[in-house]
Amino acid sequence: MQQPTISNEPSTAIEKIVAFLDARVGLKEIQAKMLNEPIPGGSRWAYVFGSILLFIFGMQALTGILLMFYYVPTADHAYASTQYIIHDVDYGWFLLGYHFWGSSAMVVCVIAHMSQVFLWGAYKPPRELLWLVGLALFGIVIGFGFTGYLLPWDQRAYWATTVGVEMVDKVPLLGDFLARFLKGGPTPGQMTLSRFFVIHVMILPAALMALAGLHLFLFRVAAPAGPFQGTSEEIKAKTDYFFPRQIWKDMVGMAAVFVTICGLAFWEPVVLLEEATPDPGEYHPEPEWYFLFYFQLLRLKVFAGEFGQFMGAVALPVLFMVLLVALPFFDKDPERNIFKRPVALISWIFIMAIIAIFTVSSVINREFLD
Amino acid sequence: MLQPKLKSKVRCTDRDIGEVTKVILDPLSHEISHLVVSMNGSGERQVLMTHVQEVMDDLVALRVPSSDIVALPPFKRDDYVTTHEVEISHLEDNLDVVPGEILVPFPDLEKDVKRRTFFMNFTHVIAFLIGLPIAYPILRFLMKPMYAPFDNDWIAVGNVSKIKHDDVGTQFQYNKKVKEAYMPESEVEKSVWILKASPEVLEKFYEDKDQDFRDASGRLIWTNKKEFPYIAFSGKCPHLGCAFKWRQHKTLGQVFLCPCHLSIYDATGKILDGPAPRALDALPIRVSASGEVEIIDMEFKAGVKNQVRII
Question: Which residue segments constitute the domains of chain B, with CATH numbers given?
Fold first, then answer.
């Protein structure tokens, strides 16, 4: 095996710079530590989603910062400045489209990442904290989607926010306060836009960077869980380091996600609706596609009436998150093989089926509305 | 677990063969798997821990003769990385291969500090005292625009000549002036649904009672008289605040239907189907002699059984 530490005298300018830095900050040791992490049972395609999420976040930060060069977060200019980005700024349509579809990719990859951890039983002791921080990151990603959706200030944005905040209003006791706090008033307006903007571009990115750092730290402390079956000899025989095989797989995954997002930005460019106003005209409000299943769920009769609405808009998502938080604490069975955990497997299939069925039915429902 | 020390002598069943120069660790189990034995100048050998019989203070006794060790292939350093170059968590937890402890002298000034816990807690108190006086200002700062007084002015929305049929929902769009905090005054488009009700629908809607509108202090603002044929509904769906429409429904006939979550109301605003918790919200309405309609623009909290006015 090649030694990461090179004892040869530096000859080229770059080698001299590297040697200079290495002598002062231990660059090579840091690099070696980053790359040489044993992955029990070897690299796998199933493990790529964490790295991909980091990549997507980096690209969202880059495109988001660029969009802020033109975007103005005021009720009288947000729409016009977004239209300017799309129609007038060179490649504005592309960067905005990338940012828009990147958010969808983020949600998809978060679900894939969580599913992988769940199916592999990797949330089990001693990785409970890793799982909890992951859930907080999931919440942040949803928060990014919700706050970012308002910023273009078109009808789609306005109505998604109106309905979303009405749902927050259904929280017992604190609901009215929380909804007004988010909106900065009784109805969505300039204050709402300012608040969502600050949350989207300052608070959530800071929270995500801090928690993603903690997530990685906890991951390194706990070490990768590895495969859910196989004897320790088999696992040991297949073990390799993070570099190069896993990094190669991660890079392929990132490239595939990049190409997909670029393709969507190109062939499905962002088209704004009319400027936001409390009269939707002929527009039928709908949330972003990944919330369609939930949108359709709220149409069910069981979620009718004041109590039903509390159940649908507050109790159901809160209960789901509480279950996920509690998961590593009540599921203490060390068995990680998903094929020997029937309840876990059936629950996962059930949730995915609900999401798929209700998403499809909401799409079918569309044609009955016109 | 056997914890051989570096520099320990290594003794085979027949004689001493050298000393321990390195230990090799299993990265997954964190157990020592091999010793590396330097044989007094004749190279290094990698010895399985299963060959070790006993570990004493500065001596490792093997259970094999020296000829077995000499016969092993030479140790290949290039097959390994040091623990500084690899990320293995909790490596040190159950490992003690360092010859003795590495110590750093405690500074003289620190030796006399007795109340370390007190000082630790004191920093927490100071931090709390810094946080306390800014918490309330921050909260008030963020709460500033949350509550606004209600606007009970009449707004002209159009002429009743727009209504062609009785008991049919007709949408009136109007512009409302809003002045939000520091922003210049602007107009937002809103809409209200107005019905010219037949006597039966009027009867069903009012149930023989006039409809009073009061402000927060209970003062009467306006009364919709039960014999007055025009009814205005706020354009906001009482379910989750979307905007409903007047639509032909396959089985229910002409209805108010919200395209969001499919709440359906009849011409009097009563729920026919869907998840809504209460009927549509009627607004104060008056019509001038020339047919100009005016309303008071009110909005009510969605998703609750009782009307709670928010605008």
Answer: 9-85 (2.30.30.240), 154-296 (2.102.10.10)
In a domain, A27, yes or no: no
| Number of domains forming the structure of chain A | 1
What b-and-e string marks burial along A314-327, b requiring 16 or more CB atoms within 10 Å of the CB?
Answer: bbeeeeeeeebeeb
Q: Which residue of B has its CA nearest to A39?
A: B28
Share of residues in chain A with pLDDT > 90 (%): 85
Answer whether residue A114 is part of any domain.
Answer: yes
The CATH number of the domain holding residue A355 is 1.20.810.10
Sort out which chain A residues have CB atoms less than 8 A from B29's CB and list them: 232
Rounded Cα distance between B293 and B155, Å, is 8
Please judge whether A32 and B276 are an interchain contact, meaning their C-beta atoms are less than 8 angstroms apart.
no
- Closest chain B CA to residue A170: B303
Q: Which residues of chain A have pLDDT under 70?
A: 1-8, 370
Interface of A with B in 61-90 (CB under 8 A): 74-76
Q: What pLDDT is recorded for position B96? A: 62
Q: Say what the ipTM of the complex is.
A: 0.85
pTM for the full predicted model: 0.90
What are residue B65's phi and psi, to 5 degrees?
-75, 160
Task: Please tell me the predicted confidence (pLDDT) of residue B99.
Answer: 46
